[in-house]
């Protein structure tokens, strides 16, 4: 599938959905008596880039897990492009254009960059169960090379993943998330453990993604988050604390006190 075909697919899907990519209404998740998230109501528009910030224990990753289907919420509803997916398994949400990266890299370390991306593309294609070996003109090979270029790894195309730097492995994960026709991607702390140079590379990659692909990014590094997001949600103790533009959040005294002056570690 080419980039143009990806966009056509996304446009066709978007034409029959609401103008919002994601809608959460009163979503809570309890673990026994512990409320990891409580009464979260959140709307993300199609194509929107949003950052979710908050100190450790604020409920950010639990929120992601509920959206992706790794956890089912205790209460509330989750709609993806207008469709109620609250009780859908993760694979059904993937089929509807949701993608996600995790805090820990999940890659095939014994394979090359090209092999990893090809497998990701093959895994969401109609021919994923075919035993035929790809030919030189396989459209998925072309698509794989496009995704490798999009995450700035062309020079490492034939390199074993085990020989990549940590930052390059994080870039590769973004390529895997782009396989198929993603409509919204959840990035879980993609800048964690990166050097300043690698963080600048990450910012360039995220800002260079096609405009029809929205994303939500969890990030502790406010400098990264505020450079790649157009809107920001602050969480505290499992609840939404503030929402606004990057400039509003950065200059908010309560946010500065919470984020820089302590908070819920």
From TrEMBL:
Any Gene Ontology biological process: D-alanine transmembrane transport
GO cellular component: plasma membrane
Keywords: ATP-binding, Nucleotide-binding, Transport
Gene3D superfamilies: P-loop containing nucleotide triphosphate hydrolases
Statement: the UniProt record of this protein carries the keyword Acyltransferase: no
SUPFAM superfamilies hit by this protein: P-loop containing nucleoside triphosphate hydrolases
Listed GO MF terms: ATP binding; ATP hydrolysis activity; L-isoleucine transmembrane transporter activity; L-phenylalanine transmembrane transporter activity; L-valine transmembrane transporter activity
Matching InterPro entries: AAA+_ATPase, ABC_AA/LPS_Transport, ABC_transporter-like_ATP-bd, BCA_ABC_TP_C, P-loop_NTPase
CDD domains tied to this protein: ABC_Mj1267_LivG_branched
Domain spans labelled ABC transporter: 22-262
Keyword Signal part of the UniProt annotation: no
Protein name per UniProt: ABC transporter permease protein
Native organism: Sagittula stellata (strain ATCC 700073 / DSM 11524 / E-37)
Upper lineage: Bacteria, Pseudomonadati, Pseudomonadota, Alphaproteobacteria, Rhodobacterales
């Amino acid at each position: 599938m080419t980039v143009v075909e990806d966009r056509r697919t996304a446009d066709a899907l978007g034409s029959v959905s609401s103008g919002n990519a994601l809608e959460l209404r009163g979503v809570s998740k309890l673990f026994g008596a512990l409320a990891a998230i409580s009464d979260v109501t959140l709307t993300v528009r199609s194509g929107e880039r949003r950052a979710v910030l908050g100190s450790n224990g604020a409920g950010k990753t639990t929120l992601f897990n509920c959206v992706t289907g790794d956890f089912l919420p205790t209460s509330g509803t989750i709609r993806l492009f207008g469709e109620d997916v609250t009780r859908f398994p993760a694979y059904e949400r993937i089929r509807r254009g949701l993608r996600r990266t995790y805090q820990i890299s999940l890659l095939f370390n014994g394979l090359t960059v090209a092999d990893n991306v090809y497998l990701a593309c093959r895994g969401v294609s109609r021919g994923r169960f075919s035993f035929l070996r790809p030919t030189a003109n396989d459209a998925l090979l072309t698509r794989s090379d496009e995704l490798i270029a999009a995450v700035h790894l062309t020079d490492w195309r034939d390199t074993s993943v085990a020989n990549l730097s940590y930052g390059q492995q994080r870039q590769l994960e973004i390529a895997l998330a782009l396989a198929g026709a993603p409509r919204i991607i959840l990035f879980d702390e993609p800048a964690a453990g990166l050097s300043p140079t690698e963080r600048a590379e990450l910012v360039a990659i995220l800002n260079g993604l096609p405009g029809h692909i929205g994303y939500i990014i969890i990030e502790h590094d406010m400098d990264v988050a505020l450079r790649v997001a157009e809107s920001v949600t602050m969480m505290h103790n499992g609840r939404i604390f503030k929402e606004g533009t990057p400039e509003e959040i950065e200059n908010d005294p309560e946010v500065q006190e919470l984020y820089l002056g302590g908070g819920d570690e």
